[in-house]
Design goal:
Layout (H helix, E strand, L loop, with lengths): L5 E5 L6 H11 L3 E6 L2 E5 L6 H10 L3 E5 L9 E4 L1 H5 L4 H7 L4 H12 L6 H10 L7 H10 L6 H10 L3 E9 H11 L3 E10 L2 E7 L5 H15 L6 E5 L5 H6 L2 E5 L3 H6 L2 E3 L12
Parallel strand pairs: 5-6, 5-9, 6-7, 9-10, 10-11
Antiparallel strand pairs: 1-3, 1-4, 2-3, 7-8
Helix pairs in contact: 4-5, 5-6
Length: 282
């Protein structure tokens, strides 16, 4: 980033003039450009003031991002996590609810996403093993009754398509859900884990290679190669520690309602606004 770095502010509600005045002074920006009532851009904001800006924004429920002037069309790929990013739930936790083990599975999921469990593959095997014997029809019930898109998801996807970006869904969750979301939302490519089903029941095992953080990063780079672009032309969005490897290979990383370790490693964090906040960065 250079001296030309701009500071984008976003909120769920119209940003009060007092916040704009205070942040313009605090940031040292040269001017202010309104994007809409809930977003604005402070031009040429020095990075030296970012800690004070971060404290102010956190205290007033504002999302902020320091970025150089960019166009969305400068990128060629949007790579998204699924659970707790594109959708609001962790699918494995909701599946476990049908066998009375949601609390136990959720605790493992939460620890894995915070980065407290070093081996994502082992944590996934432990959680899936607890689902053994569950009727596979539960997957359909979870999709129909509990899967909800995160706020702004469809607007974001429409915007990135209009800008010419390809879309990739890459998840440590399950293909049962990614395939349906891929078809529903018109996502070009999706990768996830396959639950083994025998006789209409979950066996408690995963088939094939487990999609962990390193595999996510590999899928992002493979997609970039197929598109003829560099990893720096990819945007990666996620919430858990297993998303960090793909965030590191991308040119822009977005932490969405993310764990602290992910927010700390991302270019941008959205703690308040929806996924469509991505469009206002450009």
């Amino acid at each position: 980033m250079t001296a030309a770095t701009n500071l984008t502010l976003q909120s769920l509600v119209p940003i009060a003039d007092e916040h704009l005045d205070q942040l313009r002074r605090l940031s040292g920006a040269t001017s202010l450009v309104e994007i809409d009532a809930t977003a604005c851009r402070l031009i040429a904001a020095p990075l030296e003031q970012r800690e004070a800006v971060a404290h102010y924004c956190a205290a007033h429920a504002l999302d902020h991002a320091y970025l150089p002037p960019l166009r969305l069309a400068d990128f060629g790929l949007l790579a998204m996590d699924m659970d707790s990013t594109l959708i609001t739930i962790e699918c494995i936790d909701e599946i476990a609810d049908f066998c009375g083990l949601k609390a136990e599975v959720s605790a493992i999921t939460e620890a894995a996403m915070r980065g407290e469990i070093g081996d994502f593959r082992e944590s996934l095997r432990r959680r899936v093993a607890l689902l053994a014997g569950l009727d596979a029809s539960v997957l359909e019930q979870v999709y129909d009754a509990r899967v909800r898109l995160s706020p702004g998801a469809e607007t974001m996807l429409a915007g990135v398509r209009d800008a010419g970006l390809a879309t990739l869904l890459v998840s440590g969750g399950f293909t049962f859900f990614t395939r349906r979301l891929k078809a529903r939302l018109g996502i070009e490519e999706a990768h996830a884990n396959t639950l083994e089903i025998v006789g209409g029941k979950l066996t408690g095992r995963v088939l094939g290679e487990i999609v962990d953080g390193e595999v996510k990063a590999r899928h992002v780079l493979t997609a970039c190669k197929a598109l003829g672009i560099d990893g720096r032309q990819a945007i990666a969005m996620g919430d858990g520690s297993n998303d960090l490897p793909m965030m590191r290979v991308a040119g822009l990383s977005v932490a969405f309602r993310a764990k602290p370790v992910v927010r700390a490693g991302a270019s941008v964090a959205f703690d308040h606004v929806g996924l469509d906040g991505l469009l206002r960065l450009f």
